TrEMBL record:
It catalyses: adenylyl-molybdopterin + molybdate = Mo-molybdopterin + AMP + H(+). Residues 180-321 form the MoaB/Mog domain. The lineage of its organism: Bacteria, Pseudomonadati, Pseudomonadota, Gammaproteobacteria, Lysobacterales. Catalyzes the insertion of molybdate into adenylated molybdopterin with the concomitant release of AMP. PANTHER family: GEPHYRIN, MOLYBDOPTERIN BIOSYNTHESIS PROTEIN. The keyword Transferase applies. This is Molybdopterin molybdenumtransferase. SUPFAM superfamilies: MoeA C-terminal domain-like, MoeA N-terminal region -like, Molybdenum cofactor biosynthesis proteins.
Amino acid sequence: MIGYNDALAILRNVCRPLPVQRLACAPGLVLAEDVFSDAALPPFDNAAMDGFALCVGTAGAAAGSCYPVAGAQAAGDAGLQAQPGVAWEIMTGARMPEGLDAVIPVEQVEVLERASDGRALRIRLQADLPQGQHVRRAGEDVARGERVLTAGTRIAAPQQMLLAALGVAEIAARRPPRVALLNTGRELVDDPMQPLASGQIRNSNGPFLAARIADAGAVLVVRETVADDPADFLNALERALAAGADVLLSTGAVSMGRYDFVPDALRQIGATIHFHKVRIRPGKPVLFATLPGGALFFGLPGNPVSSAVGLRFFVEPALRMLTGLPPERPLKLPLSAPYGKRQGVRVHLKGRVMPDAAGRLWAQVLPGQESFRIAPLAWSNAWIVLDEPDGELPEGALVDVYGLGHLLGLQVEGSCA
Ligand SMILES: Nc1nc2c(c(=O)[nH]1)N[C@H]1C(S)=C(S)[C@@H](COP(=O)(O)OP(=O)(O)OC[C@H]3O[C@@H](n4cnc5c(N)ncnc54)[C@H](O)[C@@H]3O)O[C@H]1N2
Ligand code: MOO
């Protein structure tokens, strides 16, 4: 049986990034090339405050100085040339009139004279005004030609904001992978309203994995439940491929039981099985294959937590490889209590990361680590991963911690005080 690192090396060899396309900017795309700005941000000098714009030079202007006001400049008004010695009323974001170099906020100005429409005609400064005050300079945020985003960045709202500000309509990117999910097992019931017959259980892996696949930046194109019949399974596989799936996932039927048909069914259609069974817990029977047309196939074990580990530690790294995201790195956090690791394999533990009263984070191994126990999974907010070999870990030992999803980060709420 291979170890996790060898399995990951096989994934790296097999998973080729999806083709690069020119696509309209949208959250979820992963940049395939660096983005350089062909505009400056801000695009022109503008006011950071509502007030009055003046030319004060390097000496600045002193409190008490008086100025006539030539007019008003609002956001959206085109540039204009200011005459020496006059002020312009100005609004936040308005283009600075040419020749003016400082803005005094309206709160620091006394209006000495107003027109009949209320417009200020003459002002006195109530504070000193240094050159450059409250002026946002062109290019201060982003210079023209600057590299603003690097290849391998996933577009989320902040990147979308930057690209929108720069007027970038299209990027060289990789689309989200398309994933199909087939849950196998004649015991499974999908309809929550359907009473369970003897021996039946509800399909809980299906909704869990569907939600996790969306969180993992992929698009679920097919989700089916199939009985323990290889022919039904292969038909469902065909439908998934016809729907354009890049990655196919199955749950169940991948271990040693009499009805564990997935490996044989895959061989029957000429799939290449790269590995089956990895030295991990839970999730040992995980299988990875390439289908004849090139689509990737992951056979996840049926036990609920085993399917979760299969998705998090095999499928999600593969999704990163397909989209050109760099490998994930775990956080290192201290264990909240001693833990004796005796499983003889790499383990993925349902964990809870919580801040103590001082705000320091601790990683707790939750009780109930068996792979059929889903209640502790619902209380977990992290995976604690302990690699081979075994050993006694004292309280405070630094361990590898992963968020629940590769794009979710660590979501810490509440406190254990
Ligand atoms: N003799 C051996 N038996 C088992 C071994 C082994 O090495 N030798 N491995 C065990 C391990 S570890 C795992 S994990 C499971 C994996 O089995 P399968 O992948 O073949 O899964 P099934 O037998 O179909 O189901 C296992 C378990 O999970 C429940 N299940 C399945 N699908 C769902 C679903 N969609 N929602 C909720 N629960 C599901 C199913 O009812 C079974 O209880 O094999 C061990 N056995
Ligand atoms: O490895 Mo199984 O996934 O322990 O239950």
